[in-house]
Amino acid sequence: VQLVESGGGEVQAGGSLRLACVASGYGFDDRAIGWFRQAPGKKREGVSCISSLNYQTYYSDSVKGRFTIDTDKGKNTVYLQMNSLKPEDTAVYYCALPPRGYGCYGLRPEYDYWGQGTQVTVSS
Predict the structure, then answer these.
(1) Rounded distance, CA 93 to CA 90, Å?
(2) Angle 52-101-57 (CA atoms, 0-180°, nearest 5)?
């Protein structure tokens, strides 16, 4: 299994970024895909997830209404569109796969597979 994130960078507050996660090495429809983030000195936080069965989406309260997750099955890719970015969104963002059969697993951090992460920096 391989997960490769891209799209991070530095933006000013109020700006937007679109992260991508390309997945390979397993059946893309077999598992949900989640996005997490970790800021320096803080615990890893679940941000969003999309179910592989019915494309139901989940968001943490901190990003609801600003971030949107979607998927392109033909490209085995999941995107995270991030709008109205705030300095507190600054973190390394990871995509990850939950245990098979557990959906988005409540966005708990005990996911099975992780990408290498992409840095997002929001300046004020």
Answers:
(1) 9
(2) 35
- Which letter, b or e, does each residue of 24-36 get, where b requires 16 or more Cβ atoms within 10 Å of its Cβ? eebebeebbbbbb
Would you give per-residue pLDDT tens digits along the chain (124 residues)? 999 999 999 999 999 999 999 999 998 888 999 999 999 999 999 999 999 888 899 999 999 999 999 999 999 999 999 999 999 999 999 999 999 888 999 899 899 999 999 999 999 9
User: Which residues make beta-bridge pairs with 19?
Assistant: 80
Amino acid identity for residue 31 in this structure: R
Secondary structure string (H, E, C) spanning 26-83:
CCHHHCCEEEEEECCCCCCEEEEEECCCCCCEEECCCCCCCEEEEEEHHHCEEEEEEC
